[in-house]
Design goal:
By secondary structure, this protein is an alpha+beta fold. It is about 55% helix and about 20% strand. It has a six-stranded mixed β-barrel. Strands 7-8 form a two-stranded antiparallel ribbon. Helix 2 (about 20-30) crosses helix 14 (about 330-360) and helix 3 runs antiparallel to helix 12. The longest helix is centred in the N-terminal third of the chain and has 43 residues, at about 40-80.
Length: about 425
């Protein structure tokens, strides 16, 4: 009888079409919980939860880190420019003509002549070191990070040199608001027979701005260009010309055209050189977090392997009966492939939706559940940023699906290789 059964199984058979409806039906029944199979189903549930949480966590973390990079880039580069033009052999006394030539280069949105210097700001309520930036009024209005974030006063009186614009955190630390007076002191004052005397001068606070990055809001003071030249003893020249371009990542292509347009010896540096260590650290951290969090999905995929192996062992007699009824090895393999892949597919889908919803509303969640926990003086930004990158989401989903599919191959192959005769004899 056993030999006849072997001959029947070894004989020619036509089989059914791959992934036929009855294969999905059997796989669905294997996914349902029964009392005697509760342990196997519990492992499958943990596998589903692991993949769901792993995918969701990956999407959330990558979205937050992409948001961090975008926000920091927009704050640091948006306020400081993309390319910096400095003199070599002589001061930039011709900054007006040079700025006009540079602003005509394709891709340049703003050329900003600038005087920079350190100073000490004080009021009756305190004092703090600041970075004074002398700019032309029309140029300041073209910097969205400042002109678009005025929290008090206005830039109308900035034209006449009657006031300065300061950051909100600096205003809070000094107890100032628009209309009050701030005193600035610098060691680079007037030259006397006894040396250089410090210069101390008071200015009206014309405007209070909030860039959104605590380091800038606590230290930046904008002053009219002509006033800054006199304050820092500049002889009609500027410290540097900052160039803003359309695409911050295209600074390499713009450098050549700017050097030709300068028509004089200059040194060009860009934001990547000035912030190389900072943004490189962000990129390394992002890649490491991706690798670490991928291990969550990998562990969940290994749980699929263990749950399917146990399911194959538990269903050995069912497999034998199916084989004797005419099911091919391919049919058995596809049944268990569908069973395991379903766990990974559904877990990936639910995790993807959960991650996208959480990442899209992370600021609202932070404000609702964790008010006051995000300290901008420590973390530079006032809110948790998030930017969902469709390419990154697709990569996470694809990675999870591939791992889930690979996890089902060995248990499915083992089920297909099961000897039905032995299974019926010892089952």
């Amino acid at each position: 009888m056993i030999q006849a059964l072997r001959d029947r199984l070894a004989g020619p058979r036509t089989g059914t079409a791959p992934f036929a409806p009855f294969e999905w039906t059997i796989a669905g029944r294997y996914l349902r919980t029964r009392r005697k199979e509760g342990f196997v189903s519990a492992i499958a549930l943990f596998s589903f939860l692991g993949i769901m949480l792993g995918v969701a966590t990956l999407i959330i973390v990558l979205s937050v880190m992409s948001g961090f990079r975008k926000e920091l880039l927009s704050k640091i580069v948006g306020i400081n420019g993309h390319i910096f033009v400095a003199p070599i052999d002589k001061p930039l006394t011709d900054f007006a003509d040079l700025t006009d030539r540079l602003s005509k280069v394709a891709g340049v949105t703003l050329a900003l002549p600038l005087v920079e210097g350190q100073a000490f700001a004080s009021s009756p309520y305190g004092g703090s070191g600041v970075l004074v930036r002398g700019v032309r009024a029309e140029d300041l209005r073209r910097i969205p990070a400042v002109a678009g974030n005025i929290r008090g006063g206005s830039l109308d009186t900035f034209d006449a040199g009657a006031g300065v614009a300061i950051g909100r955190r600096l205003a809070e630390s000094l107890g100032l608001q628009a209309g009050d007076t701030i005193t600035l002191a610098t060691p680079k004052g007037a030259t006397t027979p006894f040396g250089t005397a410090p210069r101390i001068k008071s200015y009206a606070v014309a405007a209070v701005f909030e860039i959104g990055m605590s380091e800038f809001d606590a230290s930046f003071v904008y002053m009219p260009l002509a006033e800054a030249q006199g304050f820092f003893n500049r002889d009609g020249d500027v410290s540097v010309i900052e160039i803003f371009i359309d695409d911050a990542d295209a600074v390499g292509e713009a450098r050549g055209a700017l050097e030709l347009a300068a028509e004089r010896p200059v040194v060009l540096t860009d934001w990547r050189q000035r912030n190389r260590t900072f943004f490189s650290a962000l990129e390394v951290e992002r890649n490491v977090m991706f690798i670490i969090l991928t291990l969550i999905v990998l562990v969940a995929a290994l749980n699929i392997v263990s749950s399917l192996i146990m399911l194959v062992k538990d269903k050995a007699s069912d497999i034998a009966i199916l084989r004797t009824m005419g099911a091919t090895r391919g049919t058995i393999m596809r049944v268990f492939l569908i069973t395991g892949a379903s766990i990974g597919f559904v877990g990936t889908l639910v995790g993807c939706l959960l991650g996208i919803v959480f990442a899209a509303n992370i600021t609202l969640i932070q404000r609702t559940l964790l008010p006051g926990v995000w300290d901008p003086t420590v973390r530079f930004l006032s809110e948790i940023p998030s930017e969902i990158n469709p390419g990154e989401v697709a990569a996470v989903v694809l990675m999870s699906l591939v791992l889930s599919l690979l996890a089902t191959l060995y248990p499915s192959w083992r089920a297909a290789r099961l000897d039905p005769v032995q299974a019926l004899r010892y089952g």
